Amino acid sequence: GKSMGSYDYLIKLMLIGDSGVGKSSLLLRFSDDSFDMNCTPTIGIDFKLRTIELDGKKIKLQLLDTAGQERFKTITTAHYRNAMGILLVYDITNEQSFKNIEEWLKNIEKHTSQPVNKILIGNKTDLGAQRKVSTEEGRKLAEQLNMAFYETSAKDKSMVDEAFFALTRDIKKRL
Ligand code: GDP
């Protein structure tokens, strides 16, 4: 039998996008099921873990937090190393964060050589009254980029698990 803590697959995921879009919050929500209204950026490369079960397989997810380094545009080869999936995140109340998705995509392409599955995330759907990017605009971009698209709220937990599971399922297909 398998010992405790064993797994069938180890999958490394990352969240990329502008500072403030909610990457740390989504990660925390997914890994620990908690939400911190005042999360302060930390220094260094931070991992969180969650083990999920998909189609009878135990998948250990290693979730990388860029910990504020996106601010300095210093997300580089070292961060992307071994990443198998990336959640590209924007904030639906921040148009610039949406426009910057294509820049982040270029950054990913520049710094990765391995195959990486990507998914587009519009976060903060609980702030509907302040929405600046429509669902349709998000969907269109995702279609252009040939990615799945989810709108999430790290605050009320809406669609967070769904997004992470969808990306993981895509990756598992090619393993
Ligand atoms: P990061 O810089 O991309 O890691 O963003 P953070 O996770 O640090 O979040 C930035 C700010 O947005 C924090 O004040 C969070 O509490 C807030 N935030 C993150 N996600 C959500 C969300 O889904 N809804 C709302 N209302 N606030 C959020």
Automatic annotation (TrEMBL):
GO terms for molecular function: GTP binding; GTPase activity. Signal peptide: none annotated. It is found in: Cell membrane; Plastid, Chloroplast. It is a lipid-anchor. It comes from the Eukaryota. GO terms for biological process: protein transport. GO terms for cellular component: chloroplast; plasma membrane. Keywords: Cell membrane, GTP-binding, Lipoprotein, Membrane, Nucleotide-binding, Prenylation, Protein transport, Transport. Its main location: membrane. Belongs to the small GTPase superfamily. Rab family. This is Uncharacterized protein. The chain holds residues 6 to 180 of 214 of the full protein.
